[in-house]
Each structure stands twice: as C-alpha cells, then as structure tokens.
Model the fold of this input.
Amino acid sequence: MANKTVTLTDNTTGKSIELPIMDPTHGNSVVDIGKLAKEFGYFTYDPGFVSTASCKSTITFLDGERGQLYYRGYPIEQLAAKCCFLEVAYLLLNGRLPTEQELSEFQYIIGHHNMMRENLRYNLIRGFNYDAHPMAMMTGIVGSLSAFYHDNLDIYNPEHRMITSHRLIAKIPTIAAACYKHNTGQPFVFPQNHLTYCGNLLHMMFAVPCEPYHVDPVAEKALDVLFILHADHEQNASTSTVRLAGSSGANPYAAIAAGVASLWGPAHGGANEAVLKMLAEIGDVSNIDKYIARAKDKDDSFRLMGFGHRVYRNYDPRAKLIKEVCHQVLAKYGDDPHLELAMKLEDIALSDEFFIERKLYPNVDFYSGIIYKALGIPINMFTVMFAVARTVGWISHWKEMIDDPELKIGRPRQLYVGEAHRDVPDLADR
Ligand code: SDX
Done:
C-alpha cells in the first residue's frame, strides 16, 4: 500500500505539510512529526505525553480498551500461569522464552551475580539512618553501583550490556533485602543459590542466624506471580525515565537508579504503599461513601489510590490476577479486613457514575499491598518489591534503546510563556 500520510494545514498561512503514518503490530498508528519543526516551524504540545509515542519498542504491548497485556506477544495470563519469574525475565531481556537448558544456564548466571561487594554492604548501606525509607536507600545504592562495578561499562559493547543486565537482575533482590535488614537492625543474610529467585528474596529478608528458615511455597509462588505481573509495562513514567537518562550515554546503573526514583512517586509505583495507608485511613466500610465523595471533589486533592490508569480504559488485567492471588494467600495466612474493605470500595466505585464515566478501574497497585502485608512485608517495602520486579523491564528497555540505530539523546522542546526579552537594570535602579 502507498505510504499512508496525514496533511497538516496552517489555516493562518494556508501552508500544509504531509506527515508519514507508521503502523504498529498492535495498537494505534503514529504520525511521524520528526520534520515538523524544521519544515513547518511548529513544535507539538502534549504535557504528560498523553498522545505521544516516545519510541518504537518490541517488548510489551497494552491494549487499554480491552484491558490486555502482552510481553513479547505472549498474554500475561499465560505467562503468569505457565512460567516462573526468571523465565519471564529471560523473555523480556532476550525476546524469546528460554529452553530448559537456557533457563538452567540463566538461573546459574543470576545465582552467581547475586552477591554484592562487601564494602557496598558494610559501609554504604550501614551508613544510612536505620529508619531511612528503603526506597531512598534503593535509589542511592543502585546509583552507586557503577562505583563498585566499574568494569563492563562500555554501553556499546553487547557483552558488557548483558553482563550489566545480569548483575542488576541478580543483585536487586539482595540490595532490597539488605535495605529491609538495615531497617530492622537484623544481620544481613546472604543469598542461597539452591533457592529460587523469589525464595531467595524471602530467605534474605526473613531468615535470622539463630534458627533455620523454610521458604513457604505459597508465599514463594505468590511473589513469583506478582513479580511476573510487575516486570514491565511499556513506556510508563519510570521506564521513560530510564530511557531518557540512558539516552545521554549515562551508565545503566545510573539510568536504572533514575527509574527507581521515579517509581517511588505515589502516582506511580508508590501507589501500593498509598493504597494500604488509604485503606487504613478509611478504616471501615461505613466510611467508604465519605472517601468516594472526596475522590470526586475537585477541590480535594484526595484520589482513590490504586484506581485509574493512563492507558487502561478497562480493568487492569494484572489487578484481576492479583485479586486471585490475594484470596489464595489469605486462605493460608488468615483473612485481612483490608481485603473486604478493598473489595467493597471497588464495588461501590465501579457502580458510581464518576468512575464509570472516567473509566477508572483498580490498577496493579490496588490489591498487591494486601498480599505483601500478608507475607509479613512492611508497608515501606511495597514499592521496593515493585522495583525488584520492574528492574528487568527497565534494563530490557535500556538495552533496546542502546541497540536502536535511531537512538538520539532525549531533548524535548517547550512552549515558552515567560517574560519577553528585556534589559537588566542597574542594581541602584531596581
Ligand atoms: C502505576 O503507566 C503505567 O503503566 C504505570 C503502571 C506500571 O505498571 O508501570 O501501571 C503502574 O503507576 C499504576 C497507577 C498507580 N497510581 C495510582 O493508583 C494513583 C491514583 N491514580 C491516579 O493518580 C491516576 O489515575 C493516574 C496517575 C494513574 C493516571 O492519571 P491520568 O491518566 O493522568 O488521568 P487524569 O489524572 O487525567 O484523570 C482523568 C480523570 C480526572 O478527572 P477530570 O479532571 O476528568 O474530572 O479521572 C480522575 C481525574 O481527577 N481520576 C481520579 C483518579 N484517577 C483519575 N479520580 C479519583 N481517584 C483516582 N484514582
């Protein structure tokens, strides 16, 4: 078919420009506006990138209308049912599912990069206040990794990129557990390579030297499914931050640290922590209507945390799966009044015109915190768990970007609405 185009006409001057359309595998076609500034003299304006594609990607696709999510073309429901987290990590990183042999080799590699330099653990982590928020520690520690692992940092060397990717995927659970141990004052626990990725994380967090620790298979499986569901999600705020930071040629540890920082925001990955705080504040089913009214009140900054999504205009498929895991975990660990409150809140919100009209559904963060809480994970560690899972998504996008022949440093333009040109008055005349 002849190249598809759109024509943009400036109704003031009558001048037009023809812009090419690029078609996707799935989802919306895009208008390539690359030549707009040079040939037509205009920038486009799109705060929050509501209608703007920042890149091409082969990694993940969300169908916002249907509420569907695909990693490398595979539906998330099938991946969550048939794969372990490291299989999905391999898929995101390499573009295909591993064979048994490849998975075994990948597990060996990850298991032999999961320790950290002793002076990183002993000096840097112990240098934080004992009550530092673990996301503050994660941001600092991940950003410091190039100071401890300054080999294999030639980002244009594919082998270096893969070694650094393996290091980040392998070390992020160890770092997360070390932050938790620092908060609790308990001794740090080293990874054990006979355990699975998630079993190891539970062991490093909850084992203590004075008694044996047995990984509970229910907790291990729940964490594995949660990590699969959190592993990647197209060009969300933190992934876009990683891409923008990495586009300058900054080392991948620094770029991923920027992603950790962005994820911490309550509008993004920090929402899982905010949901539990919100449920605790609501306290009882009898208070739900008051909080729903606040969420609808334009003059009230309160939002229903764990609800709404920029892309999903239908139920977040991850929330559906996480809700199922919730029931399995609570069946083992005992009921949590927060779940009943959350489900009641969901029912009331989803029957309210304000939420229906704006297509606001529970998102990935609405139920995940209830599971983490049931597993004994403290609320300030919820976003850390999100960061552990999303690290493979971040580093997969970073690799894809560095590999992209069209890579340019990200440098958005602006609409300047400040003061017009003026001269500086002498100090005495100000
Ligand atoms: C994640 O991008 C990703 O993929 C992110 C993520 C990932 O995996 O990486 O999916 C993870 O970040 C999930 C989202 C977690 N955040 C929250 O749960 C925080 C609460 N949700 C919102 O702040 C909000 O819904 C966002 C940030 C998620 C999306 O915001 P948008 O797309 O910018 O939507 P908007 O702010 O323009 O809202 C549209 C309308 C507004 O009302 P009107 O001005 O049209 O009258 O919906 C309202 C908003 O006021 N609205 C809400 C609401 N979310 C949107 N009203 C009450 N409660 C909410 N949660």
The chain has two domains: 4-53, 80-411. The mean pLDDT is 96. Residues 48, 233, 236, 267-269, 271, 295, 303-310, 358, 360, 363-365 surround s-citryldethia Coenzyme A (CB under 6 Å). The radius of gyration is 24 Å.
